[in-house]
Amino acid sequence: MTIWAQMKHFSDRFGKTVIVNNTAWHYCRLGTGTPIFLLPGGLRRASFGFAFLEKLAARHTVIAPDYPPVQTINEFFTAFDAILQTEGIDTFALGGQSYGGLLAQAYLTRKTKAVERLILSSTGPADYGKVWVAANYAAIALVRLMPERTIKKLLTAGLLKAIPLPEAERAEWVEALHDVMQNDLSRADVVSHFAVAADLIQKNLVTPAAYRNWTGRIIVLKADNDPTQSKKDFPRYERLFGRAVEVFDMGNMGHTAPIFNPDKYTELYEQTLENGVPAGPK
After folding, report:
1. pTM, full prediction
2. Could you tell me the residue range of the domain that residue 79 belongs to?
3. What percent of the chain has pLDDT over 90?
4. Per-residue pLDDT at 162
5. 181 within domain boundaries
6. Domain holding 257: CATH number?
7. How far is CA 7 from CA 173, 180, 262, 276, in A?
8. What whole-number distance in Å separates Cα of residue 136 and Cα of residue 201?
9. Burial class (CB in 10 A: 0-12, 13-18, 19+), 50
10. What is the per-residue pLDDT across 44-91, written as a single tens digit (0 to 9) for each?
11. 189 domain-assigned
């Protein structure tokens, strides 16, 4: 099967849907064991990480949602609550990769009694200043002005330039990206990406005060060659959570490790779900 066919097969096999305030929220639920609620990145479709999710589900209950084009962070919160309630999950590990890391840090402010550990990968602290609100709204204005076909072409080209694809499967991954961009995602999804981030920042949700009574583990997976991460992140995390974070070193696995390096990424992720010692220094 092609990559695109494997993604579709995965989504069809493990996919479920809940309706929240007249919006359909699709998510994948698989495996048994300790529950993990995993929030994927800006590609907005959990099935991009199908290989990682299936491997992780060998020992855990894995729930990973897709993102419909809603406009506010509260809509995400309400939907996440509904998904977890539907699955009968009260306590869980919360993971966020890339854009999902932003959402995970925000969702934790609502679920401090339910989350026993936060696992962040390919993301930074979500305590953004107000200047980022203006930047997000500027992006929204630009997206609304441009023809949708042009937006999709630019986004696809940008992704193909920014994401190092494995050479042996490059043609299949290019096809999968094109199919999702052209046939699944829309202008509204792009607007949602920026609108939700702006709403989260404007509401000033991610603050030290929000985590003051939370005593769970904070774990960060760090890749040396990930441009979204910086050494400055770790002092910010410590100020944000009021204590040191655990750091697991991914070496040069890059920003898209769960998609393109699922075996090693799963092995490392399993370590974060144990009570062992972090795999590397900051």
Report:
1. 0.92
2. 3-125+205-272
3. 67
4. 67
5. no
6. 3.40.50.1820
7. 11, 10, 14, 33
8. 10
9. buried
10. 999 999 999 999 999 999 999 999 999 999 999 999 999 999 999 999
11. no
